[in-house]
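Action item from last meeting closed. Structure (129 res):
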């Protein structure tokens, strides 16, 4: 019998003016990882990337592989003009590790937004939407 592939999914949200800005924020918070996008003829983009497990779960003892690969779809929420949902798909990982990854990404995104707001305020920059 073939081995069943375990597929873990989770989503986080962020504010942005476009899919590219949302993906840029994700790329920034994955400072030790990478993110790439592939645009299909219908205009939809599938983002993929990898991150070092040690950067979000340093206490987790993973000695075989240190990288986790993922797929990500960035979608605007239908009732919003600036709220995007980042939907992640990760295969063959420990559910506890996935939960840690999801929580860490959300925390990093909140920290990014807080620091961005503080920097804009400090420099008296205004954002034009």
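Sequence:
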């Amino acid at each position: 019998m073939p081995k069943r592939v375990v597929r873990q999914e989770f989503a986080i949200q962020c504010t942005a003016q476009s899919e590219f800005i949302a993906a840029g924020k994700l790329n920034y918070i994955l400072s030790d990882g990478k993110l790439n996008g592939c645009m299909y003829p219908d205009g939809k983009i599938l983002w993929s990337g990898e991150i070092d497990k040690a950067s979000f779960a340093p206490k987790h003892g993973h000695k075989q592989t240190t990288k986790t690969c993922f797929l990500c779809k960035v979608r605007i929420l239908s009732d919003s003009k600036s709220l995007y949902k980042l939907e992640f798909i990760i295969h063959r990982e420990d559910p506890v590790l996935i939960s840690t990854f999801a929580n860490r990404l959300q925390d990093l995104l909140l920290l990014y937004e807080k620091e961005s707001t503080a920097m804009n305020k400090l420099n008296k920059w205004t954002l034009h939407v």
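Note appended to the action item: The chain has a mean pLDDT of 83.
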